[in-house]
Amino acid sequence: QVQLVESGGGLVQAGDSLRLSCAGSGASGRIFSVHAIGWFRQAPGKKREFVGVISWSGGGTLYADAAKGRFTISRDKAKNTMYLQMNSLKPADTAVYYCAAGRWSTDQAMFDYWGQGTQVTVSS
Length: 124
What we know:
By secondary structure, the chain is mostly beta strands. Helices cover 6% and strands 53% of the residues. It has 1 helix and 11 strands. Strands 2, 4, 5, 6, 9, 10 and 11 form a 7-stranded mixed β-sheet that branches. Strands 1-3-8-7 form a 4-stranded antiparallel β-sheet. The protein is globular and about 40 Å long. The N and C termini lie far apart (40 Å).
């Protein structure tokens, strides 16, 4: 059983920073080693959208346009944990953020394992 647990969400003001964490447990070590780990978000009344993805093995990253230049994804293999560093946050970034393990893709259908999500609220 693979479990992904997000943490680090909260209420911040526009311009602030937050770092989200995604910790894997169970068989996640094996899963992570052959998968990519992605971040997605879902704002109220909107569909879940791609934020970024990192190759667990090589560390390569890909970001959505809305995240480029402000968000950075990294991982700590020893801790089986992935991070989403978010800077210069905007009210439009308000959403529930999910991490997921799957194939290298921007398509959420390619991700098999999902966390429960963590709420990020950015006030203006």
